[in-house]
Write a structure and sequence with these properties.
With about 400 residues, this protein is mainly alpha-helical. It contains 18 helices and no strands. The chain has helices spanning about 5-10, 25-30, 35-55, 60-65, 65-70, 75-80, 85-100, 105-135, 145-150, 155, 165-185, 190-210, 215-220, 225-240, 245-265, 275-295, 305-335, 340-375.
Length: about 400
């Protein structure tokens, strides 16, 4: 939904602060959005359930058979858990817009690096170590491939991924780069975010028919609607809703449900895991509706402190749950003979416990240190101008 300057000028909105100005009283009164922390954990648990009980492949070897036979009913629900990724992207659009308001490009860069890398590096080490101990589940990568994984750029480099879930991090990194270049660098404002959302939506639609690999990689047409919807929902939260913003959300939802259905449903598909296009539509709709409820302030009473902890655990849990969870399932179920449902519960709780340890002993101490270290810029000394000696 592209928006020109003239059309934006005609939209009645509250006083629109320029970059660096203080937040509006509406936003300042609400403080931390604990419900958003809870939604992040819900999205992570959806993906976790999908990896443990809603798909085939490697996890089938850990269960010693397809999860569809281990969990005949649960597996039919868990197969939709992969849509937790799209849910994440809506939340990410909301959170990135919120956290970048009033920040410089340097602040934005440092906050993203300090947030993403410490837990990511530890997860790489843990999963690689587990692969060396029990290669029957996942084989360890070569040393050169592991080192490339440290950059988080292994996917465009064509190197194998240590963490199966890190393909989504590459999507997030590209979103951060686009938002930083076109919004954070010139300064975050209402009009700039709206213009960015409109142009990105139009570019994503055009990319669907271009068939150009480079533009697909840059514009991400299959995921752009979810990020754009999150951006618009944050503007609604901050400034109040109007026809323009709700129109952006509606278009994002319409495009997003289509891209999700195209990716996850195929006519006439047969196998252990079959998805319905109607259920995909329902899950995508619920994802947008949940974030919209936060934007409208309907979740204001959900201010329990434990939700902040739940949100803090989401990222490390997301990083380690897949491969390490498969190790736990193989050891407990195939090795020790623990029944399926207790094994499933133990795997989820074990990964949450590991995520807490990573948050407590990695993210909390080393994230701020990394951010502080990045802030220390070295200004090269300017040599004094050469002058001839006086006679």
């Amino acid at each position: 939904m592209p928006a020109s300057s003239s059309s934006l000028a005609a939209v009645p909105v509250p006083a629109v602060p320029e970059a660096g100005s203080a937040p509006s009283t509406r936003t300042a009164r609400r403080g931390r959005l604990h419900a958003l922390d809870g939604l992040r954990l819900v999205a992570a648990l959806m993906v976790c359930l999908y990896h443990y009980a809603g798909r085939g492949g490697t996890v089938s070897a850990s269960w010693h058979q397809s999860p569809s036979r281990v969990f005949p009913t649960l597996s039919q629900v868990a197969t939709y858990g992969c849509l937790g990724v799209q849910f994440f992207f809506v939340i990410s659009g909301f959170v990135i817009c919120m956290s970048s308001w009033g920040r410089s490009l340097g602040d934005f860069f440092r906050s993203r690096v300090a947030r993403l890398y410490p837990a990511y590096w530890v997860a790489l080490v843990l999963v690689t170590g587990a692969a060396l101990v029990l290669p029957a589940v996942v084989h360890a990568v070569r040393p050169d491939e592991f080192l490339v994984n440290l950059t988080m750029l292994q996917q465009p480099m064509g190197a194998p991924r240590v963490l199966g879930v890190c393909w989504t991090l590459w999507v997030e990194v590209r979103f951060y780069a686009l938002f930083a270049l076109f919004v954070v660098l010139p300064g975050v404002t209402y009009r700039r975010v709206v213009l960015f959302a409109g142009v990105w939506t139009l570019a994503a639609v055009v990319c669907r028919t271009s068939g150009n690999e480079l533009t697909d990689q840059l514009v991400m047409p299959e995921y752009a609607p979810f990020f754009v919807g999150g951006l618009a929902l944050y503007l609604i939260h901050r400034f109040g809703g109007d026809l323009l913003l709700w129109g952006i959300v509606a278009v994002s939802w319409l495009l997003g449900q289509e891209t999700a259905t195209q990716a996850l449903w195929h006519p006439g598909a047969h196998g252990d895991f079959v998805r319905s296009p109607l259920v995909i539509l329902l899950v995508v709709t619920l994802a947008f509706a949940a974030v919209a409820a936060v934007a409208l302030g309907w979740t204001g009473r959900a201010n329990w402190p434990w939700l902040a902890t739940a949100g803090a655990l989401t990222y490390p849990f997301y990083l380690v749950h897949e491969h390490l969870g498969w190790f736990v399932i193989r050891v407990l179920h195939r090795g020790l003979g623990l029944p399926a449902y207790p094994t499933l519960a133990a795997a989820v709780l074990g990964m949450l416990g590991l995520a807490w340890l990573m948050h407590r002993f990695v993210e909390k101490p080393f994230g701020p240190r990394l951010k502080k270290a990045l802030k220390k810029s070295r200004t090269p000394a300017v040599p004094a101008p050469f002058t001839l000696p006086k006679r």
